Amino acid sequence: MNPTVPHPAESALASGDTATAPTRGPRTFEPDPTLPGLSFFGVVRSELSKLLALRTTYWLSAITLGLSALISGGVAWGFSSFSDETSQLMLAEGAMTGLYFGLLLLGALAVISMTTEFTTGAIRSSLTVVPRRNLLYLAKTTAITLLVAVVTAAVIIACHLVAALFSGELEVLAPFSDSEVGYVYLTHWISVIITALMGFGLGALLRSSAGGIVVLTIFIFVVQIVVAILYGVTQGAEWAEMLMRAEYSYLVMEFTSVDAVRDMELWQSLLGVFAWAAVPFGLGWLTFSRRDV
What's the rounded Cα separation, in Å, for the pair 89 and 81? Predict the structure, then answer.
């Protein structure tokens, strides 16, 4: 039987001859040029997957849909039962009454879409995968915008169908045959999206779900109540009227109203709505890109 022949390296180590012992250097890695790089649309798909994985997304979307449709049906039934003269425009505007709660609910969803990663600490993983913060912020913005746009469109369609069901005056194809009805639905859709961007910016700025939702509620509802009280107490003082015309809910109402009942030009109301959303969105972007996690 032949004796086991030792490996040359083992013989060298046993004899103390380290000069002939093989050495292992650090492993080197080289990027594969055939692999695709980090793309904007790839990051957007990733952010959409995160949003769809949140149960909060489905809860807030379902509540917005159910509440808006319920109010739409109630308003349409009230018009058909207690009003002698109704028009398609009146019914369409009434159908959108419940969507004002959607401003807050879907705006809160936008807040949570940003703050949830800061709460759980998952933002560190996101920034590791996507170290370019501006790219990540824009991808998150695009993802929440697409989601809110789809949900809001579904809510508007549901509200319209419910209103048409409870009232014979509103035709199912009215958004396509009546330009005023189509305008009301389109501007409400845009308003919800802009409000969601405001909420998203507040989430990035404050990094707190509770704080962002509270501030958003103040912008949408509380400021309106305070300004209305000031306007009444001062008996319509000029400065109080200026405040009333500058608050967010009033601008949204002006933007979604048709020409016959609008107090300001369309571009003025739209510019005001954008300004309200642009300030927190821009500050949130600045904070996200420069502040440590």
Answer: 17
